[in-house]
Amino acid sequence: MNPSGAGSRDQHFVDAVTRAADLECDRLYAQLGTLDAPGLHALGPRRVMASAKALAAVALWGGSRHRGSAAVLGAVGRLVSTARGLLGPSGLFSGDGNVESPPDSAFTVVDLCDLYELLNGDSTGAASGVAPELEALAHAVRPALLAGGVHTANHRWQLSAALAALHRSWPHPSLAERVEAWLAEGVDVHGDGTYSERSPNYAAHVSNPSLILIADVLGRPELLDVVERNLESTLAMVLPDGTVETVQSRRQDQGTSFALADYLLQLRRMAIGTGRGDFSWAADLALQGPVRDAGRTLAAVIARPALAAVLPAPVAPPLPRLEHLADAGLVAHVTGRVHVVAYGGSDYARFRRARSGLAHNPTFLRMFAGQVVLGSVRLSRDFFGLGPFRAGSACLEGDRYVMEEAVSGAYYQPLAPGSRRADGQYRLEDEGRFVSAMSFSDRAADVLGLRTRVQVRLAEDGAEVTLRTEGPPSAWALELAFRPGGELEVVEDADGPGELRPTGPGQWELVRGTAAYRVGPDVVRFGPGNGTGPDRPPAYWPGEDYTYLGATDAAEGERVYITGRAPGTAVLLLQRVGA
Q1: Residues in contact with 161: Cβ distance below 8 Å, sequence separation at least 6, in sequence order
Q2: CA-derived radius of gyration, the chain
Q3: 3-class secondary-structure state, position 245
Q4: Cα–Cα nearest to 366, from 482, 260, 529, 461
Q5: What is the pTM of this model?
Q6: Residues near 5 by beta carbon (within 8 Å), at least 6 away in sequence
Q7: With DSSP H G I counted as helix, E B as strand and the rest as coil, what are the percentages for the chain, rounded to 5?
Q8: Looking at residue 95, what DSSP letter applies?
């Protein structure tokens, strides 16, 4: 297999993918050489088949230095034989954590079918002996995928993609019918373009590529419209460091960094298909980072040479701009000086728990100012162990993003005579904060509530945060967590120098005045301090959801606390100064 015609080929892209795929092949081949049969089995079916596809791609690609390598093709055969040994009696692959899982098996099957298509398209027949083994595997797993179920929203599209891939290579009406049954539920895309799980990781690795595959195989172009809408929302969340915002996610990536590079092929596909220069801009930005899953990326280019075409002229997003993803509860304000993200889309107010599948990250503000990264601003409270502020509602009012939350704790009265039991055995009930055998629902309660309103005014050089609390006297602490690598310093202003008091390793309290965080020539000032005292400790309280388990969701970095007491109002000014 040779690269597509040079006339319309994006040579920079092709060369970058080829180099990365060759290096990945070197690592994979070296690793496989150290593994015996049990070691290969321990990799699990997804890694095994993904590795087989990656190695086959470089061995079949005319631009690769591994082109035609008998050793590499031999490794492909060894991996496919390993995958056959991982297929269980149920017709599903085992070894990926979720037991007897149709959707987890679907990841393996998509790569299996892609590998089959690669080998069938190779005119040299160098690895033709592997294709029959792949076909046997495909037929063995097909009944289980046709009958199988799922347990997350994105799994529907991954399972459907596997069925569509099987239909592409071995057409059968039952495969298309099953995909149509899943699609009949409707794709879970919000009005703002985010999927229901609001996860960049699952959009990039599951939903988008799955919908593209299904659209291509079954002739469903409207699914490409869904992918286009999701990529529009992704562009709204691109951060200055080449990552995509994750604070809004309902999945495991909500506390992590996620690279735009993972969207590379989707961005190229949609830029070419729609002619959109903003997607070209994002694809060029994605290519500036390391090429991810390079062998599989190369396999996609071999299967669809149009992916290597020259992109439309890139069009950078305008400055300044205000992006509002209402369903995700996210606002991004981007100027020539700062990039500010305000977030009020937590699920915590509704479910009152931190759990997989819920958005519960308490970070409500982030700011990028040159090399200075304020990675997280949180409001911690010492109020009935209910944890930090997580907005229950949020709205954009001009240049102000307003987030509100109401929480409460209760003290319970004695049971009425008709509800008392002589044996003292009462129902075990969850009262919202904890569980006890107290029959809470039968008792009158004295409720104490705390209302919090956080207003973020977005400015050209930063943001102004106004915090207003209503309720009984209680402590709070604003936590500012800066990315390490800079220096904290106090600032002299009209009222004198600020005061920073160290409180622990990498932790300070801004007692009064203004402070600054400097990285090279870039400086962000923040303040003012709001006093100090033993009744307002400069600390982060994660809440009983975490402390009961001896865990925490605390932010990392250089942390500065501004403390206070409810009720009342406080203001935090964040401003980039200088160049």
Answers
A1: 106, 110, 209, 210, 211, 213, 214
A2: 27
A3: coil
A4: 482
A5: 0.92
A6: none
A7: 40, 25, 35
A8: -
pLDDT tens digits for range 473-511 = 999 999 999 999 999 999 988 778 889 999 999 999 999
Which string of DSSP letters, residue by residue, matches 393-430?
EEEEETTEEEEEEEEEEEEEPPPPGGG--TT----EEE
* Residue bearing tokens 């996609």: 300
Q: How many CB atoms lie within 10 A of CB 428?
A: 11
Q: What does the block give as tokens for 166?
A: 């099987």
CB 283 within 8 A of CB 271: yes
Residue 532: other Cβ atoms inside 10 A: 20
Q: How far are the Cα atoms of 115, 304, 467, 506 from residue 58, in angstroms, in the given order?
A: 12, 15, 56, 47
Q: Give me the amino acid identity at 344.
A: G
Closest to 385 measured CA to CA, from 340, 352, 344: 352
- DSSP state, residue 310: P
CB 350 within 8 A of CB 335: no
The span from the CA of 205 to the CA of 262, in Å, is: 7
CATH code of 6-308, in short, is 1.50.10.10
**Rounded to an integer, what distance in angstroms lies between the CA atom of residue 203 and that of residue 193?**
11
How many alpha carbons lie under 13 Å from residue 84 in its C-beta half-sphere?
Answer: 15
In whole angstroms, what is the distance from residue 209 CA to residue 304 CA?
13
Measured in Å, how far apart are the chain's first and last C-alpha atoms?
52
Mean pLDDT (the chain, rounded): 93
Residue 77, CA distances (Å) to 23, 514, 549 in order = 20, 65, 47
Phi, psi for residue 271 in degrees, rounded to 5: -65, -45
pLDDT per residue as tens digits for the range 398-450: 999 999 999 999 999 999 999 999 999 999 999 888 899 999 999 999 999 99
- Helix (H) / strand (E) element for 469: namely strand 462-482
Helix/strand/coil for 376: strand
pLDDT band at 466 (very low <50, low <70, confident <90, very high): very high
Q: Examine domains 6-308 and 321-407+450-577 and report if their fold is the same.
A: no
Residue 92 and residue 107 in contact, taking contact as beta carbons nearer than 8 Å = no
Domain extents in the chain: 6-308, 321-407+450-577
Contacting residues for 231 by C-beta, under 8 A, at least 6 apart: 193, 208, 263, 266, 267, 270, 279, 282
Q: Which of 391, 415, 412, 411 is nearest to 401 (CA)?
A: 391
Residue 542: its pLDDT value, please? 83
Distance of alpha carbon 363 from its chain centroid, rounded? 15
Q: List the Cα angle 467/469/475 in 5-degree steps.
A: 95
228 token code pair: 């286009």
Q: Which numeric CATH code is attached to 321-407+450-577? A: 2.70.98
